[in-house]
């Protein structure tokens, strides 16, 4: 489900609104993912505190959201733009790609929560497609 | 059978009390059809679903959203008995309506997201986890007669 010109415009426009709260949204989304989908905790056993609001969760959530923001700027070539990140996830982190969908759900939920008026079904559609394409680009180097 | 703690029961009920079926039902249904357009395959009789604007204005979409949320009320009140509560509906969706049960999961996610829009941070991470456990139990019950 590739991104149309309209999808890209919608995502960029919405990201413009989200950007100031990106770090907060990322931290919130990661905390919710670890709480609602406990199987994802298996990737973070080296952290002391996996509860929502913990310093490590907030920091890593902010890192993830910064990468999503970077992906927005590379929306015309996600596979090329995310190639290094894909190698990291494939060879070092070895995160099962099924988890990208789980994280996407929580990112979407938090974006809806922080921007209920702006996160219309139309925006939801384009953002959902965008995150799916990001996940696809991240899985590129897996095999 | 899914086991529920007292905290889980009270959390689900507390969230459900804040849901206005007439307000949120139509929003949820429109969201499912817009974000996952292949679900339109089941609604050939609903008229104009060709544009986002048409879906948002469609009376049959709105009415169906309310029907579905009213059916969810049954789950809130029968948490210990979901498979039996939904046996007939599950059979209907399988045999007669021929709905792919994966759609139930898509619907569940849209319900949670729409409720999150409404409740915002009042839906804490722990509440979200409990609510999703509840919805996935409903999805399970709705898929139970597919065999």
Q: Look at the structure and give the mean pLDDT of chain B.
A: 94
Q: Which protein chains are joined by the largest interface, and how many residues does each one contribute?
A: A-B, 20 and 23 residues
User: The CATH topology of chain B is what?
Assistant: Globin-like
List segments of chain A where confidence is low: pLDDT < 50 over at least 5 consecutive residues.
none
Sum up the overall morphology of chain A in one term: globular
Short overview:
With 143 residues, chain A is mainly alpha-helical. Chain A is 69% helix and 0% strand. In chain A, helix 1 crosses helix 7 and helix 6 (98-114) runs antiparallel to helix 7 (121-139).
Describe the structure.
In chain A, 69% of the residues lie in helices and 0% in strands. Chain A contains seven helices and no strands. Chain A has helices at 5-18, 22-36, 55-73, 78-81, 83-93, 98-114, 121-139. In chain A, helix 2 (22-36) packs across helix 3 (55-73). The longest helix of chain A is centred in the middle third of the chain and has 19 residues, at 55-73. Chain B has one domain (6-143): Orthogonal Bundle (Globin-like). Helix content of chain B is 69%, strand content 0%. The longest helix of chain B is centred in the last third of the chain and has 19 residues, at 125-143. Chain B is globular. The model of chain B has no long low-confidence stretch (mean pLDDT 94). Chain A binds chain B through residues 28, 31-32, 35-36, 52, 105, 108-110, 112-114, 116, 119, 121-122, 124-125, 128, and chain B through 30-31, 34-35, 52, 55-56, 109, 112-114, 116-121, 123, 125-126, 128-129, 132.
Which SSEs are present, and which pair or pack?
The complex is a heterodimer of chains A (143) and B (147).
Chain A: H1 5-18, H2 22-36, H3 55-73, H4 78-81, H5 83-93, H6 98-114, H7 121-139
Helix pairs in contact in A: 1-7, 2-3, 2-6, 6-7
Chain B: H1 6-17, H2 21-35, H3 52-57, H4 59-76, H5 82-85, H6 87-96, H7 102-119, H8 125-143
Helix pairs in contact in B: 1-8, 2-4, 2-7, 7-8
